[in-house]
Amino acid sequence: MTLLDARQLVVKKIDELKNRVKKLDKKPSLVIIRVGEDFASGKYVANKIKRCEEVGIESKIIHLDENVTQDTVQKTILDLNNDDNVTGVLLQLPIPKHLDEDYLTNLIKDEKDVDGFTIENMGKLSLGLDGNVACTPRGIITLLKEFNIDIEGQDVLIINRSNIVGKPLSQLFLKENATVTIAHSKTKNLKEKIKLSDIVVTAVGKANFLGVDDFSDNTTIIDVSINFNEFGKMCGDVSKEDYDALANDKNCNLTPVPNGVGQMTVIELIEQTIEIQEKKEGK
Fold first, then answer.
1. 263: Cβ–Cβ under 8 A, 6 or more apart, which residues?
2. Active-site residue 65, yes or no?
């Protein structure tokens, strides 16, 4: 069993990205729009800013009030679209319910959409064309390749159908010649499908949703969820108490929570920002 711990890969990627930034004529600039006081969002944004500093790209947070009007958020995005000094724009989700998330996300200029969430970028991914790609799916594929885990020809089950994880990830797995099934809350016989899969991606958002008895031997398990148990400890969908049994009894590969997919999401965001600037400079 291999614990797919992302920390060493992140250190390696930071060094690589630093060197790529040094070769650019102009430092990339990432602007994050944060609306309201969501605690988790605050943590995520702080981590993104920290990583920007580590690789040497410029970053800025525009923090708007919880009760901000849609017009104000719209103007903020359009101003950033028109600012040639801004490489990438990110609207940190979730945003307050009175704002139209889909509309505002799609206002971001496609080439500045570092999250890969606009209709055009999602469409390009579906058609196999070059565009910006959602960062969590990008990070999952990067992590699997780093640990030399076969993807081609494998049966992949993704337990998530969101626009952020499940749908774009299915396209990336198809690009790598895997056979993909997407499961969700209405899926029948989910446990049977898990047993038949070579790679299982779980992004359900329920602590202890899956345990050692749910998986077949030699399964690669990608746990995307960030949950908190009754003791306030961070965990994924897969029970931490079963990590050892999955390793020793079933020889499974597993991304830990923390230090797994979450680490990769941020580093892919930074890399995509750098890629946008490289394309602008023809590098």
1. 6, 7, 9, 10, 139
2. no
136-150 per-position pLDDT tens digit: 999 999 999 999 999
Do 237 and 205 contact (CB within 8 A), yes or no?
A: yes
Q: Is the pLDDT of residue 1 over 80?
A: no
What average pLDDT score do residues 1-11 get? 91
pLDDT of residue 115: 96
Three-class secondary structure of residue 281 per DSSP? coil
pTM for the full predicted model: 0.95
Structure tokens at 1: 């069993």
Tell me the two tokens of residue 271: 């890399």
Annotation marks residue 92 as catalytic: yes
| Mean pLDDT value of segment 212-236 | 93
Task: Report the distance separating Cα 90 and Cα 117, nearest Å.
Answer: 10
Check 13, 92, 171, 198 and give the catalytic one. Answer: 92
User: Which stretches of the chain are DSSP H helices?
Assistant: 7-22, 39-55, 70-81, 101-105, 119-127, 135-146, 166-175, 190-195, 243-248, 261-280
Contact at 8 Å (CB) between 5 and 254? no
Catalytic option among 13, 113, 115, 223: 115
Domains observed in the chain: 25-111 (3.40.50.10860), 135-262 (3.40.50.720)
